[in-house]
Each structure stands twice: as structure tokens, then as C-alpha cells.
Design a protein that fits this description.
489 residues, mainly alpha, 2 strands
């Protein structure tokens, strides 16, 4: 029963998904209650996590199911992030789902299932449970990407599925090699072997396994050269789904990568190797993502390429993990802080895009011209989130970049930080270009762009998070640092 209690937050979400399907099948007249059932399950999950956070983690965390899952400050940090992301997406989806008029129960159930998989993933301490959690979150996402009625959505779903299947194969092969070399699937056991003198004899096999793991996780992180699916899937998938993919999937990928590479592969035998590889991937991802985003005319494709560039910023923190005395805490906490800041900011931008695109029937940036005159709230919310994505002070995006660049400097990765700063300048061109369109565009239309209560609430929650942590960033920084310290105990 203690094990069940430990995974209670995930079971709350899955229970809500099951209840949604039951209500949808047996009481179709009450389908308007489905999103509220989802929100109730997420609230229960958050409260369950709060009840655990209030207890003492002894000695460093609480493990269950023979050490394959844990509930610690690290996983609890991501539980709150994923619950918040999912709640925002559910709220932002209500209008779109009602307008679609089909599969309402299935849609919300799939979203909740993805959330549970992301939560399991952040708590997994075993290769098998990591893979199962990854597939639990991935398969519903493939379905959701193709949820739309048009050909672009079908293409997005198929492309996401095919590329995801290849990535899963590479990841599983890397895990098999890692198990063959170490004789265990537990991350702690793998870490103990890699740190032992015997590991030197199997270094070649370990490096190959490490590279395959990078390739498999690289798909989920959306970093170059595993990013080919991002712009097409973001453009073709329904906008609420694209929003979910942009923050939920990416956040979980970095959550598990940080744990795997610090706990299992953090010994000196391999850390310098994967640190340099991540540094190179960061530089290439930032540069390619920003350069390609500059020429985009579709705002969802632009946000897709920008997410590739933002993944490069995440990787700076991961590359910094292996350098300096504070290599674990500073680099890892930088990644965690960036995940939370990016979740608030990118979700806010996508919610505004959902509201605007649904009303004007277009995702073209030129059609956003003069939006200030038609909907001041949406224009201000979108512009504020774009400024935060750029990293202009004093937004939370600025604090996240400053923190992660500091980790890079401390790890003697000054060249990478310089590339990151230069790419931030490039990103300002297209982020602020959209903001300029909102306020100075030449569209003479005065037709109002109304927003529903659910859209207003979701946009308000996201932008409020950006605003609060822009003004008072220390609580978020402290939470990220405390969560990262768990990995060193």
C-alpha cells in the first residue's frame, strides 16, 4: 500500500481519465462535465503531491517497487509542472473540442494519459520503467497529433509516429547494451558500475550505449539532428495539441535525461564525453532553430523552430553538469528552472495563438497585424510571452537564461554561452517581429476577437506565472536547486 501511495499522483490522473471515458459512454448528456472531471483529477494529483512534500524524504527520497520509482523533490517538482501544463491545455481545449463535436471523452482521456506518463517518467529510476513510461506518454501523443480532420493533421500524426518509432528503437537498443555491459537496469546500479575500475574494459560498449540513448532522447528533446518532425507536426497538429507537445513532452524528456546522465552515466569515465556532445548539439540546435525561424510566415511553424532553439538553451545546462565543483547542482538546476520558465511562457504564447487563430481562421503571422485594436488582452498576453521567450529582462525567461548561462560559464563553456547570447539576439528579430505586427500592423479591420472564459482563464494563469516569477524569481530558483540536489545524494 505504501507503493500505491507513492504513485498516487499518477493514479489520480489515470483514474480521472477512466472516469471521463465512463461518463462519455454512459452519460453523453453530461459531456460538458468532462473537462471539469479532468481538472478535478489534476487537482487531486497536485494535492496528493503536496501531502508528500510536507513529509520528510528519508534519507534522500522514497523509493518503491524495488527501487524502480521514487517520490522525491526532483520528481515532485516535475509533478507540479506537468499538472499545471495539463490543466492549462485542458482549459484551452474546451472551445476547440466543443466545436469539433467528436471524440470529446477520448480527447481528454488521452491528454490525461499523457500527463500520467510524463509523471511516471520523471519518477523512474530504472531503464525498463523509463521506457514503459515514455511509451505511455508517447503513443497517446501520436494519436493526438493526428486528431484534426484535415490532411495536414493526418500527415503530422503519421510523421510523428514513424519518427518516434525509430527513436524508440534506438533508445531501446541503447538500454539493452547498457544492461549487457552493467548487468542491471537500475540507474543507481549502472552508476556504481560505471564508476568502478571494471568499467574501463567495457568503455567502448558504454559509449555506444550512451550515444544511442542520446539519439533516442534527442527525438523527445527536439534537438538537432533529431528535430525533423517538429515544424510539420506543430503546424499540422491541432493548436492545443501542439501546445502540449511543445512543453509537456520536452519537459519530461529533459527530466529523464538529467536523471539518467547524472545518476547512471555521471562518472568521470563518460561525463566529459557526453558533456562535449551535448555542448555541440546545443550550439547547432540554437543556431539552426533560430535561423530557420526567421523566415517562417506561419506562427506555429515559427514556434516549432524556436522550440528547437530553446532546446539548445536547455542543453547548455546539461553540458555544464560535468564541469566545476558545483557541476551537478548548478547545471541541473539550470535545466529545471528553464523547463518551468519555458512551460509558463510557451504555453501562454500558444494559448493566445489558439484564441486568435480560432477566431480569424489563420495561422499566418501577417494576419495577426493590428490585433491590438481587435483584442488588447490577447495582444498584450502574446507580446509579453514573446518578450519572455526572447530573454529580455526582467522577465522569467531572462532569469532562466541568466542562470543557465552562468552554469555554462562556471563549467568553462564560455564559447557555448557566447553562441547562446548571439542566438538570443537572432531570436529577438522574429519574436519581437510578431509583437510589432500585433501593435503596428496595417490591418484596418475593427472586428472584435472575443475570448471564451476558459481561454481567458488559461491565458491569465500562464501570463500570471510569467509575471510573478519575473518579479519574484527566487522561489522558483530555490525549488529548482532543491530538486537538483536530490540527484547528488
Amino acid at each position: 500500500m505504501n507503493g500505491i501511495d507513492t504513485v498516487g499522483p499518477q493514479l489520480s490522473v489515470l483514474g480521472a481519465a477512466g472516469l471521463i471515458l465512463v461518463v462519455d459512454a454512459l452519460m453523453p448528456q453530461h459531456r460538458r462535465m468532462l473537462p471539469f472531471i479532468a481538472l478535478f483529477g489534476l487537482i487531486v494529483s497536485a494535492l496528493w503531491t503536496v501531502s508528500w512534500v510536507g513529509r520528510d524524504f528519508a534519507p534522500a527520497d522514497i523509493t518503491t517497487f524495488d527501487g524502480t520509482f521514487s517520490l522525491d523533490q526532483y520528481s515532485a517538482f516535475f509533478y507540479f509542472v506537468f499538472v499545471g501544463i495539463t490543466a492549462t491545455v485542458v482549459l484551452a481545449s474546451i472551445d476547440w473540442v466543443n466545436r469539433e463535436g467528436r471524440g470529446q471523452g477520448e480527447y481528454y482521456a488521452l491528454v490525461m494519459t499523457v500527463c500520467s506518463g510524463l509523471m511516471f517518467l520523471s519518477a523512474s529510476r530504472d531503464l525498463i520503467t523509463i521506457f514503459l513510461s515514455l511509451e505511455l506518454s508517447s503513443i497517446p501523443q501520436y494519436i493526438l497529433a493526428g486528431w484534426g480532420k484535415d490532411k495536414r493533421s493526418s500527415e503530422a500524426g503519421i510523421k510523428y509516429l514513424l519518427v518516434g518509432a525509430v527513436a524508440s528503437s534506438l533508445l531501446l537498443y541503447g538500454m539493452a547494451l547498457l544492461y549487457g555491459a552493467t548487468g542491471t537496469t537500475l540507474l543507481d546500479g549502472i552508476g556504481a558500475y560505471v564508476a568502478s575500475p571494471e568499467a574501463e574494459a567495457n568503455r567502448g560498449l558504454l559509449v555506444l550505449a550512451m550515444v544511442l540513448l542520446m539519439a533516442g532522447f534527442g527525438f523527445k528533446m527536439a534537438v538537432v539532428p533529431f528535430q525533423m518532425w517538429v515544424p510539420d507536426v506543430y503546424q499540422g497538429a491541432p493548436t492545443p495539441v501542439a501546445a502540449f507537445l511543445s512543453v509537456g513532452s520536452k519537459g519530461a524528456a529533459f527530466a529523464v535525461v538529467v536523471r539518467v546522465f547524472i545518476v547512471a552515466l555521471g562518472a568521470d569515465l563518460l561525463s566529459d564525453d557526453w558533456s562535449m556532445i551535448f555542448a555541440i548539439l546545443a550550439a547547432v540546435s540554437m543556431t539552426l532553430g533560430n535561423v530557420m525561424a526567421v523566415s517562417q510566415t506561419d506562427i506555429k511553424r515559427m514556434l516549432g523552430y524556436s522550440s528547437i532553439a530553446q532546446a539548445g538553451n536547455f542543453l547548455i545546462g546539461l553540458a555544464a553538469v560535468s564541469g566545476g565543483d558545483e557541476r551537478f547542482t548548478l547545471g541541473a538546476s539550470g535545466v529545471l528552472l528553464f523547463v518551468a520558465a519555458y512551460a509558463f511562457t510557451n504555453l501562454g504564447a500558444f494559448v493566445a495563438v489558439i484564441a486568435i487563430s480560432q477566431r480569424i481562421g489563420s495561422d499566418q503571422i501577417k494576419d495577426y497585424a493590428g490585433m491590438w485594436r481587435r483584442s488588447p488582452v490577447l495582444a498584450l498576453g502574446l507580446a509579453f510571452c514573446l518578450v519572455s521567450l526572447t530573454g529580455i529582462p526582467p522577465t522569467v525567461g531572462f532569469w532562466a537564461k541568466l542562470y543557465i548561462f552562468n552554469a555554462g560559464i562556471r563549467a568553462d563553456l564560455g564559447w557555448l554561452v557566447i553562441i547562446g547570447v548571439l542566438n538570443s539576439v537572432v531570436s529577438a528579430y522574429y519574436y519581437l517581429g510578431v509583437a510589432r505586427q500585433l501593435f503596428t500592423g496595417g490591418d484596418e479591420s475593427t472586428e472584435r476577437v472575443p475570448t471564451s472564459p476558459s481561454i481567458s482563464l488559461s491565458l491569465g494563469a500562464a501570463t500570471l506565472g510569467v509575471l510573478v516569477f519575473s518579479i519574484i524569481p527566487m522561489p522558483l530558483m530555490s525549488a529548482a536547486r532543491d530538486a537538483a540536489e536530490v540527484l547528488t545524494k
